[in-house]
Amino acid sequence: MRVLILGGDGYLGWPTAMHLSTKGHDVAVVDNYLRRRICREENVTPLFETPDLIQRCKIWDRISGYQIPAFIGDLAHWDFVSDVFKKFMPDTVVHFAEQPAAPYSMLNRKAATLTLQNNLMVTANVIFAVREFCPDAHIIKLGTMGEYGTPNIDIEEGWIDIEHKGRKDTFLYPRQAGSLYHTTKIMDTDLLWFYVRMWDLRVTDLMQGPVYGIFTDENETDEQLLPFFNYDELFGTVLNRFVVQAVAGYPLTVYGKGGQTRGYLNIKDTINCIRLALETPAPQGRLRIFNQFTETFSVSELAEKVLRVGNRLGLDVTIQSIENPRKEAESHYYNPVHTGLIELGLEPNFLTNDVLAHLMKFVSNYKNTISKDQIFKKIKWA
Ligand code: USQ
Predict the structure, then answer these.
(1) Which segments of the chain are extended strands (E)?
(2) Residue positions annotated with a catalytic role
(3) What would the mean pLDDT of 100-117 be, rounded to a whole number?
(4) Distance from residue 381's CA to the centre of ligand 1 (Å)
(5) Of ligand 1's atoms, which has the minimum distance to the CA of residue 255?
(6) Looking at ligand 1, which atom is closest to the CA of residue 236?
(7) How buried is residue 249: exposed, middle or buried, by Cβ count under 10 Å (0-12/13-18/19+)?
(8) Where does the pLDDT of residue 281 fall: very low under 50, low under 70, confident under 90, or very high at 90 and above?
(9) Hey, whose CA ends up nearest to atom 19 of ligand 1?
(10) Is the pLDDT of residue 377 over 90?
(11) How many degrees, rounded to 5, is the angle at CA 190 between CA 184 and CA 196?
């Protein structure tokens, strides 16, 4: 298939691009380096430098022989979007091109506005472009488990059957996000659902949990192919942060009671989920929703795992419960369904001690570059 990956420079976009190209798809990537720019503006640095997208595509071509054309520009601008779609004419659009960090979206008005404008405008432009240039194309949209929040009932896979006063209907499962970033993902889902009803688009919305890891089958041979990896409070996800903290000798930053439970997945499973969704497209006129994670953990359980594995490797790991900068439930019911992707063929890579040790050993190579003052900046959400 001809696959256009929007946000191809990001933590997940670039590994997905390499993976799909090795599986025989014609892949192109698009990015405007927004993540790199806001990291510079906020004075946070990834664990290691990564070449820009043009360079990465050249390196990948040299190593693998697969060519991935790159378009550099802002998908919030229609002229650029229409140009890219006319040139590439995708069968599938994989949409990662959003400001992806909940803490950043809660930083200040400027960050909030950027998140709203970027995320909603890009999603709208993708919808308009598919309608105008490739109406049969399948849109695969990265949503988030955080759209559902932490309700006191089981979380279904996107939809819920409701019986009310003797009548029955099926609705989008109730959404109630805990950050502005997560709220933009709810708005994206609503936009997509509206245009599925209006224009019979075919869409898969992937409700993804926090991702961890660095390695995929495509990047282990050359460090220049590794993904952009943040460990700071703004952009790092919790398990990646804990691993870096363990290596740096920084007490693991468990927020509040540590009972916050989420559905996690290895970066390898993210790219497999995208491939599975792409190779079995949603039917025309359907919004298909999958809950994309492989296992659930509380924050305290993750910290305990990192502590055990780290200490076995000779690190001196400690855990510190700190006042929660976020406004969220710290102990709650959490039981989301996640059978759709397994039924499509996903074989999960679980969080074993070996997986954690491998990651920790790799991060140890960069111990001297870890900047402790970006680990916790106390960004208050409320
Ligand atoms: N947490 C800590 N200590 C830390 C960092 C986080 O206790 O040092 C806690 C948070 O309070 C939260 C949980 O760990 O309860 C997960 O936080 P996170 O930063 O890993 O994840 P989050 O901000 O929710 O966002 C990440 C990704 C986002 C994705 C989302 C999936 O950045 O793109 O959509 O995970 S989910 O969490 O299921 O909504």
Answers:
(1) 2-6, 26-31, 70-72, 92-95, 138-144, 159-164, 167-172, 202-208, 211-212, 252-255, 261-266, 286-292, 295-298, 319-322
(2) 144, 181, 185
(3) 98
(4) 13
(5) 7
(6) 19
(7) middle
(8) very high
(9) 237
(10) no
(11) 135
Q: Hey, what domains does the chain have and what are their CATH numbers?
A: 2-374 (3.40.50.720)
The pLDDT of 366-372, averaged and rounded, is: 96
pTM beyond cutoff 0.90: yes
Residue 221 pLDDT: 86
Distance in Å, CA 294 to ligand 1 centroid:
16
Q: Please tell me if the CB atom of residue 262 comes closer than 6 angstroms to any atom of ligand 1.
A: yes
The three-state secondary structure class of 80 is helix
Question: What element of type H or E holds 149?
Answer: none
Q: Is the shortest distance between the CB of 77 and ligand 1 below 6 Å?
A: no
> Of the residues 238, 239, 332, 335, which should be mutated to test ligand 1's pocket, given the most ligand atoms within 8 Å of the CB?
238
Q: How confident is the model at residue 378 (pLDDT cuts 50, 70, 90)?
A: confident
pLDDT over 90 (residue 119): yes
Q: What is the mean pLDDT of residues 231-241?
A: 97
